[in-house]
Amino acid sequence: MTTTKEAARPTAAPTEATGERLLDGATHVRVETPDIDGNLRGKLVLASKLAEGALPMFPEAYLAFRVDDELVEHGVGSAETGFGDMVVAPDWSTARRLPGREHVVAVLCDGLRKDGTPHPAHPRSALRRVERDCAEAGFESCFGVEFEFWAFRLDERADAALASGDVAGLTPLSRLPQGYSLLRWPDCGDFVDDLTATMSAYGVPIETVLTEIGDGMLEAALAPGTALEAADRAARFKLGAREVAARHGLLLSFIAKLRPSDQGSSGHLHQSLLRDGRNAFWDGAPERLSETGRHYLAGLLHATHECGAMMAPFPNSYRRFDPAQWAPCEAAWGFDNRNACVRAITTGAGGTRFEQRRPGADLQPYLAIAACLAGGLHGIRERLEPPPEADKLGRGEEARTLDRELVDAAATLRASRFARETFGDELVELYAATREAEAEAWTRLRDGQIPPWEIKRYLEVV
């Protein structure tokens, strides 16, 4: 895996080195910044205003929005705060012309307090802090995100199906549930061509695209970069891919589990560390790990348990976990073992890495990557040792069982000393509160209706 330098610090006005030329001829800038779920939110701002050094402002409360924009009344979402503003400071190294809208420049932003210090509850700022810790430890991070997602046709049946939540009413992009298929390529080729070209122009290079096991399911592996670059690419991919899909009359979904009988959509995180430009995990031969690699692995498994809510942030996320479908339930590891939670890939000095297989495609990319990196660094600092390698079914004798419901994962996060030392009390409390609120909303919706199968089974016979 290759890597690049740490992302530039946010600044007010762009310089020639950080995007000034991109603003030539641009009328507007789309400022983009992640919410608590990791999705990008933003607004259009006059380019001339930002060129003069003005900093956009967002209400702090946006960090406490649920997926339906209901406000979680906790921390920045509390009425006692007065719902004041925070600064969203552009990181001009991320500036890109929007493909097809050349008069608009998109730029990712960090969250700051009004005094210019990093906002303690902002996901991108949290990851930047962990990346700084990595650099101070003498390492350079390298992460690559791999997404599986569903593609459906927006035909005459789609509106009714979406309104009712009836998945059976959606028409998949392809009828064949064949992975690594070339037979399915005529169905998706035009979309994929547009996707790869558009994402590259948007700053999200895609290394590989393939069909997955599921009718209408695709996988895209994003090119690796530093931890911050990888999270930025993941967030931009989910936004940009949906825009491309709409041009082709398609709907994309990154839901973790769509149907009980089908495998879920993963969001695997490939990761390694470099020291002086060399892979710090490689130990000279396959199926071996360096001392640094062993310690990082032990810390990564620890973070998987402590920060699981960041890797599986919604109640639906937990429907995906099924060892029979390569979605692990234990914090176990193994060499080239897809049944394990962490797959150790030791193919050579350039490619040795860990594949974190716990996250789904609905992961919070900034916080999940931050948790993985911080966990690995914790393992290196404390010289932790991993448990024995799991068997080929992914079962480890000393492996910890991972939480099976979001409310439990939120409680684990809130009680975690590691999470609080990594992210700070304010972010941990806010994130746990938003997960608990989402779990409560899900339970209320579930219990507020009787499913059709239950009515059908009992209506006429009891």
CATH architecture of the largest domain: 2-Layer Sandwich
What is the chain-wise order of helices and strands? EEHEEEEHEHEHEEHEEEHHEEEHHHHH
Describe the sheet with the most strands.
10 strands, mixed
Radius of gyration: 22 Å
CATH topology of the largest domain: the name is Creatine Kinase, Chain A, domain 2
First and last CA, distance: 62 Å
The total count of helices amounts to 12
What best-fitting shape do the alpha-carbon axes yield? globular
Work out the number of β strands. 16
What count of structural domains?
2
Helix fraction by DSSP (H/I, runs of at least 4): 25-40%
Oligomeric organization of the protein chains:
single chain
CATH class of the largest domain, named Alpha Beta
Q: Give the helix/strand class.
A: alpha+beta
Annotated CATH homologous superfamily of the largest domain? Glutamine synthetase/guanido kinase, catalytic domain
Uncertain segments are: 1-8
> Beta-strand percentage?
15-25%
Could you characterize what this model shows?
By secondary structure, this protein is an alpha+beta fold. The protein folds into two domains: 16-113, Roll (Ubiquitin-like (UB roll)); 136-447, Creatine Kinase, Chain A, domain 2. 32% of the residues lie in helices and 20% in strands. It has helices at residues 47-51, 123-136, 158-164, 185-201, 227-247, 291-306, 308-311, 365-382, 406-415, 417-423, 425-447, 452-458, and strands spanning 28-34, 40-46, 57-59, 85-90, 96-98, 101-112, 140-153, 171-172, 206-211, 217-222, 250-253, 267-275, 278-279, 333-335, 342-345, 353-356. The protein starts with 27 loop residues before the first strand and ends with a helix. Residues 1-17 have a biased composition (Low complexity). It is an enzyme of class 6 (ligase).
